[in-house]
Design goal:
Number of domains: 2
CATH topology of the largest domain: 60s Ribosomal Protein L30, Chain: A
CATH superfamily of the largest domain: Holliday junction resolvase RusA
Order of helices and strands: HHHEEHEHEEHE
Structural class: alpha+beta
Number of strands: 6
Number of helices: 6
Distance between the termini: 48 Å
CATH architecture of the largest domain: 2-Layer Sandwich
Strand content: 15-25%
Radius of gyration: 19 Å
Oligomer: single chain
CATH class of the largest domain: Alpha Beta
Shape: globular
Helix content: 40-55%
């Protein structure tokens, strides 16, 4: 695909976004909230596709540092943090909720995750978890209505599992990795991901449920 073709494709995506947003606003103004919710997911889908196109464009200009500059820019916009707790648990914070299945592309998350994971392991001795539990805690803005809390099986998790397994686990198969899901209330939407050795999971779960794992300034309330 040429630079001109990318620009044309982006223009078409932008037009779809504008049309979908206009339709969403119209439905919301008429009180047709269920229809508005469906349209806003279409808007998010088109937005993510446009974002992926926009990320490709700098490389097509021929700038020698385009890739490096885009990686830095992406991390500024979605600053994923990864740290190793003193207990040996890995904690990742994504400053957004993960997309719903079938509604959104996960490419924008995957790219950020792999870049963040690579940066995390680069300056450390090799880290190798064995049998572990991956914990997803979906933190919802406390201003959200209750109906916005999503079923766990409707959330796209594979991008995160694949990135974590690639860098830290022998495999993401059931022999090596179990899954645990929970929700909490906070000041903003976010997704917390923990990787915990299986033998430590009971202790971790108690700390998570009691709020001991959250610093006081986080204002996160486990549900």
């Amino acid at each position: 695909m040429t630079f001109e073709e990318l620009l044309s494709s982006a223009q078409r995506r932008l037009k779809k976004m504008q049309d979908t947003l206009s339709l969403t606003l119209s439905m919301e103004s008429k009180g047709q909230y269920e229809l508005a919710y469906e349209e806003v997911f279409r808007f998010a889908y088109e937005s993510e596709n446009l974002t992926m196109l926009a990320r490709k464009m700098p490389a097509y200009t021929g700038h020698p540092r385009a890739g490096e500059m885009m990686d830095t820019q992406v991390m500024e916009i979605i600053p994923i943090t990864i740290e190793l707790a003193k207990e040996g648990w890995l904690k990742m914070v994504i400053p957004a909720l993960l997309p719903r299945k079938k509604h959104s592309s996960t490419n924008y998350i995957s790219e950020n995750l792999y870049f963040a994971m690579q940066r995390f392991v680069d300056d450390k001795p090799p880290l190798h978890f064995k049998k572990s539990v991956i914990v997803f805690r979906h933190v919802y803005d406390q201003q959200r209505p209750e109906r916005w809390l999503r079923d766990h099986d409707n959330i796209e998790l594979n991008a995160v599992v694949n990135a974590v397994a690639l860098y830290l686990l022998p495999s993401d198969g059931p022999k090596w990795l179990e899954h645990y899901y929970c929700v909490a209330r906070g000041e903003v939407d976010s997704t917390e991901v923990y990787l915990v050795p299986q033998e430590d999971f009971d202790r971790f779960r108690v700390a998570l449920k009691s709020g001991e794992i959250d610093p006081p300034e986080s204002k996160i309330t486990p549900l």
